[in-house]
Amino acid sequence: MAFVEVRGLVKTFTRRQSPWGRTQVVRAVDRVSFTVAEGETFGLVGESGSGKTTTGRCMLRLIEPTSGSFALRGEEVFGLPARQLRALRRDMQMVFQDPDSSLNPRMHAGAIVEEALIVHGLGTRAERRDRVRELFGLVGLDASQLDRHPHEFSGGQRQRIGLARALALRPGFLIADEPVSALDVSIQAQIINLFMELQQQLALTLLFVAHDLRLVRHICTRVAVMYRGRIVEMGSTDAIFREPAHPYTRALLSAVPDPDPSTRRARVAFDPAAVDLAAPLRDVEPDHAAAI
Amino acid sequence: MDEKAPALLDVRDLTTEFVTTRGGASRPVRAVDGVSLHIRRGETLGLVGESGSGKSVMALSIIRLVPFPGRITGGSVVFEGRDLASLHEGELRHIRGARIGFVFQEPMTALNPVFTVGDQIAEALVVHRVARGAAARARAIELLDAVRMPDPSRRARDYPHQLSGGMRQRALVAAAIACQPSLLIADEPTTALDVTIQAEILDLLAAMRDRIGLSLLLITHDLGVVARLADRVAVMYAGRVVEEGTVHDVLASPQHPYTRGLLASLPGATPGSRLRAIPGTVPDLAALPPGCAFAPRCGERLGACDARRPEAITVSPGHSARCFLHGGTA
Fold this sequence. Notes:
- The complex is a heterodimer.
- Chain A has helices at residues 52-59, 82-89, 99-102, 109-119, 125-138, 155-167, 185-202, 213-219, 237-242, 247-255, and strands spanning 4-16, 23-36, 41-45, 67-72, 75-76, 92-95, 173-177, 205-210, 222-227, 230-236, 282-285, 288-290.
- By secondary structure, chain A is of the alpha/beta class.
- In chain A, a hairpin with a 2-residue loop joins strand 11 (282-285) and strand 12 (288-290).
- Chain A starts with a strand and ends with a strand.
- The model of chain A has no long low-confidence stretch (mean pLDDT 91).
- Chain B is of the alpha/beta class.
- Chain B folds into two domains: 9-99 and 183-269, P-loop containing nucleotide triphosphate hydrolases (Rossmann fold), CATH 3.40.50; 109-180, no CATH class.
- In chain B, a hairpin with a 2-residue loop joins strand 1 (9-22) and strand 2 (25-39).
- Chain B is globular and about 65 Å long.
- The two termini of chain B are 38 Å apart.
- At the A-B interface, helix 7, helix 8 and helix 10 of A face helix 8, helix 9, helix 10 and helix 11 of B.
């Protein structure tokens, strides 16, 4: 039994081109299946509109999936009534992309981190305060900053607050949705290091949703590449970056600008018409499958 | 490129200040602090920096469009042999958009939502008296074709919201080159785009540069984008250029600890290893240290770094760094 097991996840949205237009059904996530082993960092990569963020949000049921299943430690998450879902949420948390919009500007940093403990009725007031201090230390924030508001912190520090909040309930599974893409280059590395340290220290299982392939290659052991709602390639990071099999993955990898001036690679053009979206994933080598 | 030819754009000691009121006292903050740079014809200069480095204010200062309460307080900008500071607003308007084109980061806010894309490109031609009426509209379609917009005559009749992000950025490039400028200023032109679209737009800018002999000032935070497109690069930190040189010199043998730190902090070398992050945070321009602005984060700081601000020192021909490691401490 895998620690995280997603099977046939589908999320459809309906939309109209105009108020009097016909309703269209858009499949944002289309029969997505993957597993993540305990303690692993799994990367979900793709461009905007690929469905990677929607997949993460459906898993935590921040939005309701249309169909499919998701089991965490063997326990089914989809279809759980609200009460049991809340209990299970202690074990799965999320870090969002934009700390500016995901932290309440009116609350103190300490209160933001403490809130989840209150909601779940954990600990006495003194115990909660100790736990918040401990969490601040864990993410590299100074306990003297507990009473400050989010705007008094830098972008990198705000993302540390978001991480402390996510870790407050000691989850085993963390989804990080583009956690560093809003940060300056020199700050990104600090936060990535923090993620790697905490993952080791707390034995976290991490689903890392990102568009930055350099980053994904650095921290993920396995990767799934999403394109138009489907996983088109999946396997060990090493195999996929060494020998991408799907034309979209090839184009994506070749498009990443490389700061090494001696390696001006040829870019692989991508023809969307040449992709068979109905093709199922098939193994190209052990732990490496592509929809070709 | 002719090394001896006079520069197309020659910026000397440009300084732009913003007056901020914090804690009751108002004081000027230097967003651009004595920046000098030049661009030759057909050349691409990459201007690299993080948030607050002053790179975007630098671009606006060149074309004298600094938003209130910002003010250019010193230096000169000579473009095509004319000092832009000596020109009045009417003359400047003939340069902006006609001789110097711009492409900004957010294609949605740079385009007017209530006019078609074709009309907006044609408007640039009409304003600068290049063409009028049907001729301007026909030229707009040609320009959309030149930037490889699919189905240009149909897209010319579309409104901005009907286009994808990549197509909008293509439309902006078309409008920017409509009057055949000699310089194009592109401020984070691909930051809001997906990586495959980004690569297409970078290829497009390179093609335009080569085909119509355009010079390019490319402002970005991404060293990879610079490596792909630029000939030379200037690295900005806290309002100053801390390192400048050819792309090869700067990226292959960086001489300023900040540039070295930026390159070292990028993921890539050894997967799973600890990244070599630059400690600390991007500095607050209102509270800069008296010495080198990078000193508090620098692992190689010397005694002089906290006392004085380093001058630019030529490390090798065409490659300079503003750092005491290369001398100037005496």
